[in-house]
């Protein structure tokens, strides 16, 4: 595999500080981050865009629905495990977690969260040119136009993450193994 797990000592200088910060924050160095460190710009870009997404006005469960929708759509085993752990820490209903982990799930048990999942998939399918009725349906579930744009932000962040994780062949870390598929 051409993407080794880099450390602060072996990574390009532009990635070292970010590797140390992620390790300190999480208590371990995720393989996905250690491999993404081969490109300081990509690592920095993902960390910044994901932090911005985490601070947007979408509520935490809605953000996790979007992330899991991207993770299962793009078959990113790391994101599925990591965000299953996150959903568990948010005390998400087990039925919701099970449905989110299944890309063929017909609908989520929560109608409002299902609206986020459907809207995310429609934005992807239409390359952002969603029908007015699709946007109205999303808004009818209590979301805003700002939230609609934040869905695009989340799609960008987790397109980067899921594709990079697959490209680098990063494994699921031991800390997340119980949440893996």
- The average pLDDT value, as a whole number, equals 96
Q: What fraction of residues sit in β-strands?
A: under 5%
Unreliable residue runs: none
The topology string of helices and strands comes to HHHHHHHHH
Provide the structure class.
Answer: mainly alpha
Question: Roughly how many Å apart are the termini?
Answer: 22 Å
Shape: globular
What oligomerization state is this entry in? single chain
- Percent of residues in helices comes to 55-70%
Radius of gyration: 17 Å
Major β-sheet profile: none
Number of β-strand runs: 0
Condensed summary:
With 181 residues, the protein is mainly alpha-helical.
How does this model look, in words?
The chain is mainly alpha-helical. Helix content is 65%, strand content 0%. Helix 1 runs parallel beside helix 3 and helix 4 (60-73) packs across helix 7. The longest helix has 24 residues, at 145-168. It is globular and about 50 Å long. The relative contact order is 0.17. The model has no long low-confidence stretch (mean pLDDT 96).
Helix and strand arrangement:
Elements: H1 13-26, H2 31-36, H3 40-54, H4 60-73, H5 77-89, H6 94-101, H7 111-125, H8 132-140, H9 145-168
Helix pairs in contact: 1-3, 3-9, 4-5, 4-7, 4-9, 7-8, 7-9
Keywords, separated by commas or semicolons:
mainly alpha; globular; 0% strand; 9 helices; 181 residues
